[in-house]
Amino acid sequence: MDESEKVRKIWSDLGLPGIVDVHTHFMPKNVMDKVWQYFDSQGPMIGREWPITYRADEAQRVATLREFGVRRFSSLIYAHKPDMAAWLNQWAVGFAKDTPDCLHTATFFPEAQAAAYVADAITAGTEVFKAHIQVGNYDPNDPLLDDVWGLIEDAGVPVVIHCGSGPVPGEFTGPDPIAKLLVRYPRLVLIVAHMGMPEYSDFLDLAERYDNVRLDTTMAFTPFVEETMPFPTGEVNRLKALGAHILFGSDFPNIPYGYAEAVHHLIDLPGIDDTWRRAVLHDNAAKLFGLR
């Protein structure tokens, strides 16, 4: 059985029409090439060997997700410096148009023009934003983002936000800046990437406190992550209880193991049932993004 058959068997055995993966990356080729070069060099935000399993051209990567039966996925772009986000957003418009099973994705960075291009992105039909606090090295409460968060909150567009301190801490990572942000914008629909690793418990707290806070499972529970940032066994019951707040994410293509492995480590968690599995692999995201 090849990998696509293994993945399809998982969701078909659960009676699902496929998987919704909220955390995948598609970017302009020159940007993706630089990302891969950074992983290859084991840069300071990586700190360990990290082979890219699905290193292929864009068309092949899209085809691979479709072969897995991924119904919807994202093109999580992110800016690490000024004057980059608007250009990435323009690229993402074209990618979403050419790839109808990709959620229309956009990003932002703390800069004077951010509110204007975020407003344009919302008008253009953006379905999900990506914010990368670690790579961007910015405070989510930067005053330059005040209007941005207000626009996104009012529009109800979800934001996949890498704000946990894994794989290495950043100046503005961790739960405290996000807790402060949510006090100011309590209606924000935030999807905390990577379950907030390694501050899992703190981000579960936020998901309990705010109805619109969700966590994606990206890389969590896999042996690769469990070696250094294990999910606390004492939180499994709370993870189960918060099933409506958990969404599947993979980090495809930038994962150092197979897609089927990631799915299996999620669905094999102790104490969960098929209702939880169906919700996390498909139903929660389908509801959030209005998929039929």
TrEMBL record:
Domain Amidohydrolase-related: 20-291
GO MF annotations, alphabetized: carboxy-lyase activity; hydrolase activity
An example Gene Ontology biological process: secondary metabolic process
Keyword GTP-binding: no
GO CC annotation: cytoplasm
Gene3D superfamilies assigned: Metal-dependent hydrolases (3.20.20.140)
Pfam families, A to Z: Amidohydro_2
Keywords annotated in UniProt: Hydrolase, Lyase
Keyword Lyase recorded: yes
Protein origin, superkingdom: Bacteria
InterPro entries, alphabetized: ACMSD, Amidohydro-rel, Metal_Hydrolase
Protein name (record): Amidohydrolase
Organism in which the protein naturally occurs: Mycolicibacterium fortuitum subsp. fortuitum DSM 46621 = ATCC 6841 = JCM 6387
